[in-house]
Structure formats: structure tokens, C-alpha cells
Amino acid sequence: MSVPAQTEPLIVPRPEHSVSRSNISPNALKVLYRLRDAGHAAYLVGGGVRDLLLGHEPKDFDIATDATPEQVRQVFRNSRLIGRRFRLAHVFFGPEIIEVATFRGSTIPAGTDGTDDDARRAENGMILRDNVYGTIAEDALRRDFTVNALYYNIDDFSLVDYAGGLEDMEAGRLRLIGDDVEARYREDPVRMLRAVRFACKLGFVIDAGCEAPLPELAPLLSEVPAARLFEEALKLFQAGYGLHAFEKLRHYGLFEQLFPATEECLSRQEHEFPVTFVSRGLDNTDRRILDGKSVVPQFLFAVLLWEPVRLRYQELLEEGASWADAMALASHEVASAQQQHVAIPKRIGMPMREIWALQPRLERRQGRRPMTLIGHPRFRAAYDFLLLRAEAGEVDPELARWWTEFQDANADGRAKMASAGKRKRPRRRRKPKRAQGEGAEAAAIQRAGAGGDGGGRNDG
Ligand code: ATP
Ligand code: MG
Questions:
Q1: Residue 59 and residue 66: Cα distance in Å, rounded?
Q2: I need a surface site. Which of 2, 285, 304, 429 has the fewest CB within 10 A?
Q3: Boundaries of domain holding 407
Q4: 209 with 313, same domain?
Q5: Model confidence over 33-81: pLDDT tens digits?
């Protein structure tokens, strides 16, 4: 079960814990010292302390203080106040940003008579505004998991634990703070995703009481802004444990809240290549991250949404659309429907669709096409995507091999390969070649979707 509120903290003096200043970012230390020297309480908190205790390198360093955001602003000229839901200060050091948050006040459970509290909650218990400042004890108890509520005090280098986080850390257990687990998920349904994320990242077990309500409460995610879910999706799938997260999210019914169209395809076709395809795609991404290689979000989202795109594409082909039109319309439909759930920003959505658009083009190898394709800015990603499809058994591995060879060949070799390809007629080519550049997609959508309600193409 979850942890009851505790008023007296456990304080672990410096000689008895392993958090060392030598592992804390020098900029975070600067912020801590300057706040202290200005007479404020200042603590390192959250993932920074947690990860240092586990011997991991923290992703970022968050600081909590009793100074108000305005006071923080006064101490640091290189800072800016941000956030509406939570007001906090960002202190800038070149590319590094140190986040400084003022201790937040406690939240009265929904449904009790706290009128102040009602004002900042929606009817469903979700917290909308949270700008009430409080003490460190209150701040600790409104954090999500006990292991995320450990404080490192810059004044005496001790660790401060109000929620039993050290004990859970030892046990490798992820537990929500507070005794009403369901209310904590309702306050902020993203905590369900965070439970999965930290379980994967830290290799911790989700406490049974916190795990049990997940399937039932998963639909609460539909109330979270789709832009916030995009940020969470990136953290889940682009941090080196994407495959594990995918499996866990599906297990709890959380994945279908994020990618409903994909889940529908996967649940219908278990044991076939769609699951293999997504799993391999995520596994690839994980490996790249662990090898220190770069990964791009457009590839990730192209993988996650490919199955619904592919099925719709095939449907449209059967209805008689040209392959280019079919792909354009299928991509458009799937990507648009996805926006309500996980909002993919345009800068990622555009290249994601290009990766898809290039798939049928990679199947057409004759004449000058391969040379044109190889110069396409999205060629490399599209080729990697094709490799994945081949590995998953969705396309002929020969096609993938051909492109591998073509890239390795010199000019002569490429010319030979392309002319050899000439003899093979493309599998399906019902309509004359159409322009593929800018605007082609919009035109294709119009052509394929002529009739608006779909009435013009339901003859297949
Ligand atoms: P990481 O940065 O490694 O992803 P983190 O624990 O630092 O993990 P952040 O999102 O950076 O996660 O948040 C910092 C801290 O803020 C958390 O450790 C937690 O104490 C608190 N926090 C973040 N999100 C929530 C939330 N949704 N509900 C309650 N507390 C939260
Ligand atoms: Mg953090």
C-alpha cells in the first residue's frame, strides 16, 4: 500500500549517505550555494537525488527552495520565470538549465470541504492550478513517488526523507505518496505513465497497491492535454528502455490510450509481424541510445503508427487509388486522428510522413528513380525503416538488400543495378506517375478523398 503522511522527517547526515557534491552539476551547486547565501533554504530534489543514490548519472538537477519565484529571480539575473500551472524559475548556464521551484503547499483531497482546493481542481479531481506555496514537508508530500521525494540539503549536506523514500529505494519499490492511490492518479493521470517509466528506468517494482488500479484508471489519460502526452511519450520511448516500456504500457492498458489505432491493429493481430515490427523498431532505438548514437523522434513515431497506416494504405489500393495517393491519404488520416491523443508537432509529423511516403517509392527501382531517391533528405531514415519492415517479414528482404548494395555501389554499379531493375515491371502501377514534391500530398488527399464523405471511393 501507499505511504501515510509523515511529519517528522528522517534525516541522514552526510557521512551516512552516498550523495557527493562531486557528482552534482557545478551549475546546480552554484544555484544551491547562492540561494543559501541569500538566506534561503535550498535543496536538490527529485530525480537528481534519486539517481545519485542509485549510482546513475542524473538527467537533470531540480532544486527546491523556500524563496518565492520572484525572490529567485532577484538572486539570478540569468533566470526567467516560467509556467502557468506551476510557476518556477529557470536559471540559465549556456545550454544547461537549472529548474528552481518554490516549495508547494499541500493539497486537500478532492471532495472534502476545502474551498480553496476546489477552486484549483476540475470536477474529476485533476489539479489545474497549483501555485500555493508551502513548507518543505508539504512540498515532499505532494510529489509523486516516495523515491522522488528525497531532499539533499545544501546547508549541512544531509538527506531529508519525509515519505519513506530511502526504505523504498533499498527495496527497489515504486510507491505513490499518500494513502489514497486512486486520488493521486486522478489528480494527475500522467503519474500512471511515470510509474511505468520509472519502473523501467530504475528496474523497480511498482508497489502492488499502486499497480492494481492502473488498468481501470488508464482512460483518465484522455483528459490530459495531447501536447503533454507527446512529451511523456518521448521520455518513455526515447530513453533506452522503449521496448520494455511498450510492453508494460500495453500490459496495463495504457498504450491504447496513447496510440489507440496502433493498439487496435496489434490486439487483432497478435503473434504476427505488427508486434514484431514495433518491438524491433523500439529495440533498435534502445540499442542506438545505449551505443550513444543519435535517434530522431520522427522515426520513432513512424514506427509506432505504421501498422494503421499500412492497413489503410492497402485498403485504399484495393479501392483503386494510386499508390502515391493511397499513401498520402492513409498517412493523413492516421496522423490526424493521432493528434487528439498524442499531439505530434509539425516539425516531427512532416518528416514522419515523408518516411512513410518513401516506402512505396523504395519499391520502384527502375530508371533514374533510385538516384533521385538516394538524394532525398529522408532517404536514410526511410531506408532504415525499410530494413525494419524486411526484418519483421513485411517486405521481401531482397528489396532491402538491393538498396544496401545500391548505396555501396559506385556510379557504374548503380547504373547497372538501375537498368537491371528496368526489366522488372513494378508490381502495381495503375495510374501515371505523379508529382511527388511539395503540395503533392494535399492534391493526393483531395483526389483520393474526393467526395468528402468517402462516397466517391467505396466501390471496392
Ligand atoms: P527524470 O528527470 O529522470 O525523468 P525526475 O524524477 O527528475 O525524473 P521530473 O519530471 O524531472 O522527474 O520531475 C522532478 C520531480 O518533480 C520528480 O522527481 C517529482 O518529485 C516531482 N514531480 C514531477 N512530476 C510530478 C507529478 N506529475 N506529480 C507529482 N510530482 C511530480
Ligand atoms: Mg528530473
A1: 24
A2: 429
A3: 255-457
A4: no
A5: 999 999 999 999 999 999 999 999 999 999 999 999 999 999 999 999 9
